Amino acid sequence: MSTVSKLFPEPDAIKLENTLKHLVLALNHKRQSLLDRYQVGELEVEIIRYLEEHEQKKMKEVGEHFHIKLSTLTSTIDKLEKTKLVKRKNSKDDRRVIFIKPPPKGINLLGELDSPTRSIADQI
């Protein structure tokens, strides 16, 4: 017996709990199908979201923020760049400094991931 059923044994509460479980499963399925289509994982999405919120960041700053070694981050950014979800740009002042930012395709991914949740929130 679930916690909700114990606290609220009324049929309406149990029905609501079951509906919410189905909704969460559907949202997770939709999210996973988008991740599969874009060939990315959750960490990569979080990196793109972080870059979108900050417009562009140095590779070193991203690695520090996510506690990722630069070598690991480099291979992750290579993969994201291949799929056109991020762009690299060398600094004009110091060519050793590399900035990364999400192009429109990366921003579109975030919008597609957030859209189902926003839609449901609007309806509620």
- Give me the number of helical elements: 6
Poorly predicted regions are none
Number of strands: 3
- Assess the beta-strand content as a share of residues: 5-15%
Q: Cα-atom Rg, whole angstroms? A: 20 Å
Average pLDDT over all residues: 89
Kindly report how far apart the N and C termini lie.
27 Å
Strand order of the largest sheet: 1-3-2
The largest sheet, given as strand count, sense and whether it forms a barrel, is:
3 strands, antiparallel
Structural class: mainly alpha
The ordered H/E elements are HHHEHHEEH
| Percentage of residues in helical conformation | 55-70%
Shape: elongated
Give an account of the 3D structure:
It is a single chain. The protein is mainly α and 124 residues long. Helix content is 69%, strand content 8%. Strand 2 (87-90) and strand 3 form a beta hairpin. The longest helix has 28 residues, at 11-38. The relative contact order is 0.12. The model has no long low-confidence stretch (mean pLDDT 89).
Write a concise keyword list for the protein shown above.
3 strands, mainly alpha, elongated, three-stranded antiparallel sheet, 124 residues, 6 helices
Task: Write the SSE topology.
Blueprint (H helix, E strand, L loop, with lengths): L2 H5 L3 H28 L3 H12 L3 E2 H8 L3 H13 L4 E4 L7 E4 L2 H20 L1
Antiparallel strand pairs: 1-3, 2-3
Helix pairs in contact: 2-6, 3-6
Summarize the structure.
This protein is mostly helical. It has helices spanning 3-7, 11-38, 42-53, 59-66, 70-82, 104-123; strands spanning 57-58, 87-90, 98-101. Helix 2 runs antiparallel to helix 6 and helix 3 (42-53) crosses helix 6.
